[in-house]
Write a structure and sequence with these properties.
The chain is of the alpha/beta class. It is built from 11 helices and 21 strands. Helix 8 packs across helix 9.
Length: about 475
């Protein structure tokens, strides 16, 4: 007979405890231990069926399945790979189900697909499909259930299914696990069954995952290790665009993004995100600089806005939206120590326009340019872009894919670039359509690039 044991599992990190406690010893969170009954079955030895082959040999490449939604296919690495498992997470109401319904509708024109919802009834999914005006056809099968055993049995009956979407993994349950849906044990066990089916039958499985209030995928961390691709669907509710970001991909590049616009007819692709983020850019305002960044293999131009104001507090404020506050403090320290500028008696506010979040160190130079421009109240030269990493000694370090950044800037009508280039590229890099490229070595050179009127020189001298 099976042996029944009780253990307490942390719902954040999945650490198992033999007895209940207020604090998890694994991750340190409080009041997250839940009692779960584990049924351990007796092990029987059976002959192995594992077949070993040589690692070097011919292996036919699987043809990727294209949805012809360009932004989605780009993030997936050029399409969906048969036998792969994809996990997509995002805030509630951000549009995960809408996106996947459009994707499965497009793929159903080519291959048999199944959309299984554990959160909505069939009538509710049909209502959304009518609003989105999607055409599923006879190859798109729809069901509403939360039982993994029933899903696997149904897939056995429909043995020609090549794509399965589970919405969502937190609502699924396995009969052999005596715990409620959404717990660590259920999520891990259900994901394991689906992944095993995907590998055995060579079908594509897409899992929708919930996120916690910290913005990470709910459930055990091992879930992200088990799947082949992890995508995050992001976006501010105050803006009409959404960003699909790849953080793990065994079959493509990571840090790739796809940009969509939310409309009353669903999500539409944005082929030129730079034009979207720079739509309301004003060139005659101080404290604004254009950053030429890279998101995976795609160059994206975004606006960095800074405001420097007198403070009446003992500790000046340092606020950043869309950027790392600690890195902002570091750049302010470099500007004070290496360039002689004074920010100690000023409140500093930094914002990435459009709600975009930037993590690339190449944005250091654009942030510094916006801060200096806001401090002296002098607009940056028009039609200029900035990119480069700033070191603690005040030097400006080169970053990768400079030519792609310059090419994107020239395509959008920019005329000059301020950046650092590797030594081997200084004489070989082309202007890519720009009128001038200013190569910077030290951050203090930034003061020389402001407009050279006598009034502006006096402002910089006073600081």
């Amino acid at each position: 007979m099976a042996k029944v044991t009780v253990q307490f599992v942390c719902q954040d990190c999945g650490t198992c405890h033999t007895k209940w406690g207020g604090k998890c010893e694994g991750c340190g969170t409080w009041n997250r231990l839940v009692e779960e009954v584990i049924e351990r079955k007796q092990k029987f030895t059976k002959p192995t069926s594992v077949k070993f082959v040589e690692i070097v040999g011919e292996s036919p490449l699987e043809t990727r399945k294209l949805s012809y939604i360009g932004e989605f296919d780009r993030v997936c690495g050029g399409g969906l790979v048969p036998g792969s498992v994809l996990l997509i997470g995002g805030d509630p109401g951000i549009g995960k189900s809408t996106l996947l319904l459009q994707v499965v509708s497009a793929l159903a024109q080519q291959i048999p697909c199944a959309y299984i919802s554990g959160e909505e009834a069939v009538a509710q999914v049909r209502l959304r499909a009518q609003r989105l005006n999607v055409q599923g056809g006879s190859q798109l099968h729809l069901a509403s259930t939360t039982n993994i055993t029933d899903i696997l049995n149904a897939l056995d009956q429909l043995n020609n299914i090549e794509l399965v979407i589970i919405d969502s993994i937190q609502t699924m349950a396995l009969d052999t696990i005596d715990s409620s849906p959404g717990t660590v044990s259920q999520v891990r066990a259900c994901a394991h069954e689906l992944i095993s089916t995907a590998k055995k039958r060579n079908i594509i499985v897409v899992l929708v995952g919930h996120v916690t209030k910290e913005g990470v995928l709910a459930g055990p961390r091992v879930l992200e290790h088990m799947v082949d691709t992890v995508l995050y669907f992001e976006g501010e509710r105050n803006y009409h665009y959404r960003i699909l970001r790849s953080v793990k991909n065994r079959y493509g590049a990571t840090d790739e993004i796809g940009v969509f616009e939310m409309t009353d007819r669903g999500l539409s692709e944005v082929p030129n995100p730079s034009a979207l983020f720079l739509n309301d850019h004003n060139q005659n305002v101080s404290g604004s600089a254009i950053f030429a960044g890279m998101e995976g293999t795609r160059p994206i131009l975004s606006e960095v806005q800074a405001l420097v104001a007198p403070t009446y507090l003992a500790s000046p404020r340092r606020t950043a939206v869309g950027w790392d506050t600690a890195r902002l403090s570091m750049i302010l320290a470099v500007l004070e120590s290496r360039c002689g500028l004074i920010f100690g008696n000023k409140d500093v506010y930094l914002n990435i326009a459009g709600g975009l979040k930037i993590t690339e160190p190449a944005a250091d130079l654009a942030v510094a340019a916006a801060l200096v421009s806001a401090l002296v109240n002098v607009p940056i030269p028009p039609q200029s872009i900035f990119f480069g990493e700033i070191g603690l000694s005040g030097e400006v370090r080169p970053v990768s894919q400079a030519e792609n950044r310059l090419k994107e800037a020239a395509k959008l009508g920019f005329l000059s670039a301020y950046c650092a280039l590797p030594t081997q590229q200084k004489n070989t890099v082309s202007k890519e359509g720009l009128e001038s490229i200013y190569i910077m070595r030290y951050l203090i050179e930034l003061l020389d690039f402001l407009p050279k009127s006598t009034h502006n020189k006096q402002k910089i001298a006073e600081i």
